[in-house]
Write a structure and sequence with these properties.
Radius of gyration: 18 Å
Structural class: mainly alpha
Length: 198
């Protein structure tokens, strides 16, 4: 089982700790609301991705193979949503008011869950990890469950780094630099679309 677990853990760390839509939005959330108020979104990300891992283990990949248009439409919807969020972050949600209050409330647990279904990186991760790493035959379910448990343990720590990074950015760019921070965070969120389209 170690022959499956070690490479799967490395893959999970790589996918959850590197830049992508979840981590860019967590950086924004950390900068706007702090780490503690970002925790529901973090929990939502974990729950949403676990649901995708379970669906992938049950055969979601087969659906995308037979209906590639469904995957393309999800990719386009996710990209458009991220560009919308990026503009809202950079330019403000209240008619461009220069208060830095461009997002009024932190994303919730429900936002985190449902965002995974607009996040193509989440699909790529779930489909890859459940098709490559579990053992075949009778050991499939046991090894798939071990991978899901590993994800549940690793993901919150990985994504928390990005919320913490956002909190640090807020402290560094407080006061007159707050508007610059909005532009930087908006640009980072827009840039995460590159990870979707690659």
């Amino acid at each position: 089982m170690d022959s499956v677990l070690i490479p799967a853990v490395v893959f999970i760390i790589t996918m959850t700790a590197t830049p992508g839509p979840n981590n860019m939005l967590l950086t924004v959330s950390g900068a706007k609301f702090g780490y503690r108020r970002s925790l529901p979104f973090i929990l939502g990300i974990v729950i949403g991705e676990v649901s995708q891992l379970i669906l992938s283990a049950l055969g979601l990949g087969v659906l995308f193979i037979h209906f590639p248009l469904a995957q393309l439409l999800l990719k386009m919807a996710g990209s458009l949503y991220l560009i919308y969020l990026a503009a809202k972050i950079a330019f403000g949600g209240k008619g461009g008011k220069d208060s830095g209050d461009d997002i009024e409330k932190p994303m919730t647990l429900i936002h985190g869950i449902f965002f995974q279904y607009l996040n193509p990186k989440a699909y790529v991760f779930a489909l890859t990890v459940m098709s490559v790493y579990p053992l075949q035959g009778e050991l499939y379910l046991r090894s798939a469950l071990l991978i899901i448990i590993s994800f549940v343990l690793i993901c919150p720590m990985s994504v928390s780094l990005w919320a913490g990074f956002g909190t640090l950015l807020k402290k560094m760019m407080a006061g007159r630099h707050a508007r610059n921070l909005n532009f930087v965070l908006g640009a980072m969120t827009a840039l995460s679309v590159v990870f979707i389209l690659m």
